[in-house]
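#structure-requests
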Amino acid sequence: MSLEVILESAHGLKSADCFSKTDPYVLLSYSTQILRSKTVKNHGNDPIWNEKFLFTVDEGVSELILKIMDEDLFTADDHLGTAKIPLKGVLSTGKLPPTAFNVVRPDGHYQGEVKVALTYSPKKLQSYSTGLYQPQKDPSGSVHGE
């Protein structure tokens, strides 16, 4: 049994750094499996990942946890917040269309939203992650997301 997660984007993330832009990535946790997204540079508080991840489904595990982090160069990465995604519905229906989930800090304060789509399959596949993220050029010609 497998669970495919498409990590699309986040919106309204609050910056953890006073003097630099947010460079977010996501740690996706399901049971004992942890996968990491790519770091999105230069998109600040509204990153776009468009990455696909596959988890092996374990019986009795009813939640996917997304831990949004801010990558730092010289200090420990900052924890921006966590989104907890209940899986009961997708495990019975097979699909969850792109849906926004609240990201909250450990103190319970709202930190933005993260958008994911989920697909459940009864087939057992190996866990993987594959980035679908494509750098985007703005009108000035500079590349964002690398």
